[in-house]
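Sanity check

After download, print the first record. It should look like this:
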Amino acid sequence: MSARYGDAARREFFGWQDAAACRGLPPETVFSRREKEALPALRACRRCPVRRPCEEAVAPAQSMFDGVSAGRLWRNGRPVPLRLLPAYLPEARA
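Expected structure tokens:
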């Protein structure tokens, strides 16, 4: 019975991952510390319907996270200023 509860709780907490736009991207892209390598994940975040649950589950600032979460690139739990993204994303231009 506890195994069932554990599975249900896990699905409730991490179920958003099934809807994540970055689902299927290679881990080295999603967990990259460099903007250029993370661009595919950052692009996916632009159209992702689960940005808020992603940030809540990952808690990048509290977990010293490296990678992409909720549309931002994080390094050691701090957001990294993006320099390349606007040049690679036409829809990001004003």
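If your output differs, re-run the checksum step. Summary of this record's structure: The CA atoms of residues 18 and 24 lie 10 Å apart.
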